[in-house]
C-alpha cells in the first residue's frame, strides 16, 4: 500500500517492541497501525487485512498476551510491548496440525487470525468446551462458512 | 480509508503528563483503546487531528470498592470489567453489558472511559450506568469535579467536558438489597456488533412482587441514552403482572425518538424497544418467582 516511502516522513519515530520473541526496532509514523507496519514495513504478511475496522478478526495478534486487532492498534500503543503474530506460532504446534488434519482451511484468509485467537484460548483453557471455542472465536469471520471444521480443529487441539 | 501517517501521537504514562499536554498543545484528541476512534479517523467521520495516546496511563486502570462505592478507572478494559468479581457483585448489569460490547479482541482493547467519551448513543456501557445512577470523576487543571452520567450528555455527542479535562473514574453506588436487573441488546450479529437497540432494566421488588423502584434505560433510540420515566411510573407501586409489564413496555415509546439509519428504521427500533423491555421485565419476574 504505502511501501517503505512514507508520505510524511517527518513524523516517523523509532519504536521498539518484541515481535515473536525478538527485540525489534522499526522507524514508522506513530499513527501507523500495527497491521500496516507488519505488512508494509516489516513485510510480514501472515497477518491479514480484511475489513480494517475491527469487525472480521483477520488481523488478530496477541499484544502482551491478549488478542487484539492489529488494524485498531497504533504503533504508539505497541512501544515496549510484546507482539505475537501467526508467524510466531510453531508450525508443528498441535493447533496447526489439527487445522490441517481437520481440513479447517478453505480459502485461508481468515485462518491466521483464527489460529492466533484459538492459540490464546488454548493457553488459557487447555481443554475448552465447544461453547468456549465459539465464544473465543465469535469475533472472527469466515466467509467460506467453514466454522464447523474450524471449531472441530480447535477442540481436537484441546484434546491433544 | 486514509492512513494516519501524518498524525502526531503524543504518548504519556501518567495522568499528570496527560493533563499538561492537553493544556499546552491545542487541538489534541484523546485516544484510549481506539476501537472506534481509529475507524472514525480513517474513514473521515471525524477530522484527522493529532492524538494524545493515554492507553498506557496505568494509574487509570483499576476496579476498587471503597467507602461503599464501586470505582472503575477510565482506562479499565471491558474484558477487565467483565471478569471483575467486584463488578459482578456490585454492578452485575455492567458486567453483562461489558460482555456484549464486541468480540474478545474489542473487549481486550475498548475502555469504559473511551465508551463514555466517544458518546455513541448506542454505547453498551451507558444504559447500565444510567440505571445505576453512576457518577463520573473528571479531572483537569482546575482540579476534580463530579458529574452525574445523565448530566454529562448535553445532546448528540455534546459533553460536559472541557478540552483540557479527562474522565478519570466511574463511580457506582450499589443500589442495595432487593434490586434485580438485566442488560439487553439487539445487534445484527451476536458475536460483535453495534446495538440497534440496547437497554437496562433495574427493579427493586418487595417480597410480594410489588415494584418499589424501577429504572429503565434505553440506548440507540435518541440523541443520548435516555431513561424512560413513563415506563418507570407504570411499574412503581404495581405488582409485576404480565399486564403491567406490557403497559410498562409500551410506555417506553413516549420517551424515545429513534431515527432511521443503516442498522434499522425508527419503527423497527420502537418495536424492538417495547419487546425487549417486556422480555427483560418478564425475565426478572420469572427469576424472582413473581410469575411462573
Ends apart, CA distance between termini of chain A: 41 Å
Q: What is the CATH architecture annotation of the largest domain in chain B?
A: 2-Layer Sandwich
| DSSP summary, beta strand count of chain B | 14
Q: Give the CATH level 1 class of the largest domain in chain A.
A: Alpha Beta
Strand order of the largest sheet of chain A: 2-1-5-3-4
CATH architecture of the largest domain in chain A: Roll
General description of the model:
The complex is a heterodimer of chains A (160) and B (292). In chain A, helix 2 crosses helix 5. Chain A contains 5 helices and 5 strands; from the N terminus they run ββαβββαααα. With 160 residues, chain A is an alpha+beta fold. The model of chain A has no long low-confidence stretch (mean pLDDT 93). In chain A, a hairpin with a 2-residue loop joins strand 1 (13-19) and strand 2 (22-28). The longest helix of chain A is centred in the last third of the chain and has 14 residues, at 111-124. Chain A has a 5-stranded mixed beta sheet with strand order 2-1-5-3-4, with helices on both faces. Chain A has 2 domains: 9-85, Roll (Ubiquitin-like (UB roll)), CATH 3.10.20; 94-159, Orthogonal Bundle (DNA polymerase, domain 1). In chain B, helix 10 (229-235) packs antiparallel against helix 11 and helix 11 runs antiparallel to helix 12. In chain B, 51% of the residues are buried. The A-B interface holds A 1-2, 6-8, 11, 29-33, 36, 52-55, 57, 60, 66-69, 71-77, 79, 117, 135-136, 138-140 and B 1, 3-9, 11, 31, 33-35, 38-39, 42-43, 51, 53, 55-56, 79, 102-106, 108-109, 190-192.
Amino acid at each position: 500500500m504505502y511501501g517503505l516511502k512514507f508520505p510524511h516522513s517527518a513524523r516517523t519515530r523509532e519504536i521498539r517492541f518484541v515481535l515473536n520473541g525478538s527485540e525489534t526496532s522499526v522507524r514508522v509514523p506513530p499513527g501507523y497501525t500495527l497491521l500496516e507496519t507488519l505488512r508494509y514495513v516489516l513485510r510480514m504478511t501472515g497477518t491479514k487485512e480484511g475489513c480494517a475496522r475491527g469487525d472480521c478478526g483477520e488481523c488478530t495478534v496477541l499484544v502482551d498476551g491478549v488478542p487484539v486487532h492489529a488494524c485498531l492498534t497504533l504503533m504508539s500503543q505497541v512501544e515496549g510491548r510484546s507482539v505475537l503474530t501467526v508467524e510466531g506460532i510453531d508450525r508443528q504446534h498441535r493447533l496447526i496440525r489439527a487445522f490441517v488434519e481437520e481440513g479447517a482451511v478453505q480459502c485461508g484468509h481468515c485462518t491466521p487470525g483464527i489460529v492466533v485467537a484459538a492459540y490464546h484460548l488454548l493457553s488459557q483453557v487447555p481443554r475448552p468446551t465447544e461453547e468456549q471455542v465459539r465464544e473465543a472465536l465469535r469475533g472472527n469471520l469466515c466467509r467460506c462458512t467453514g466454522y464447523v471444521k474450524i471449531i472441530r480443529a480447535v477442540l481436537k487441539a484441546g484434546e491433544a | 480509508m486514509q492512513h494516519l501517517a501524518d498524525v502526531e501521537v503524543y504518548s504519556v504514562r501518567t495522568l499528570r503528563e496527560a493533563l499538561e499536554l492537553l493544556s499546552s498543545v491545542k487541538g489534541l484528541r484523546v485516544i484510549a483503546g481506539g476501537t472506534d476512534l481509529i475507524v472514525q479517523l480513517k474513514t473521515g467521520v471525524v477530522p484527522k487531528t493529532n492524538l494524545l495516546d493515554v492507553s498506557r496511563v496505568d494509574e487509570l486502570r483499576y476496579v476498587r470498592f471503597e467507602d461503599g462505592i464501586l470505582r472503575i478507572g477510565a482506562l479499565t478494559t471491558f474484558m477487565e470489567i467483565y471478569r471483575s468479581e467486584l463488578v459482578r457483585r456490585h454492578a452485575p448489569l455492567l458486567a453483562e453489558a461489558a460482555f456484549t460490547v464486541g468480540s474478545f479482541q474489542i473487549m481486550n482493547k475498548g475502555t469504559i472511559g473511551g465508551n463514555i467519551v466517544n458518546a455513541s448513543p448506542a454505547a453498551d456501557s451507558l444504559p447500565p450506568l444510567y440505571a445505576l445512577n453512576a457518577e463520573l470523576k473528571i479531572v483537569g487543571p482546575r482540579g476534580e469535579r463530579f458529574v452525574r452520567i445523565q448530566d454529562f450528555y448535553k445532546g448528540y455527542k455534546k459533553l460536559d467536558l472541557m478540552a483540557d479535562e479527562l474522565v478519570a473514574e466511574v463511580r457506582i453506588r450499589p443500589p442495595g438489597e432487593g434490586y434485580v436487573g438485566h442488560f439487553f441488546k439487539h445487534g445484527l450479529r451476536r458475536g460483535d456488533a453495534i446495538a440497534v437497540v440496547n437497554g437496562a432494566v433495574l427493579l427493586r421488588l418487595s417480597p410480594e412482587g410489588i415494584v418499589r423502584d424501577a429504572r429503565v434505560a434505553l440506548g440507540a433510540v435518541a440523541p443520548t441514552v435516555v431513561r424512560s420515566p413513563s415506563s418507570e411510573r407504570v411499574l412503581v407501586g404495581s405488582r409485576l403482572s404480565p399486564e403491567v409489564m406490557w403497559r410498562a413496555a409500551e410506555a417506553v415509546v413516549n420517551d424515545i425518538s429513534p431515527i432511521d439509519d443503516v442498522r434499522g428504521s425508527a419503527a423497527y427500533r420502537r418495536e424492538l424497544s417495547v419487546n425487549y423491555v417486556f422480555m427483560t421485565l418478564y425475565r426478572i419476574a420469572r427469576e424472582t418467582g413473581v410469575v411462573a
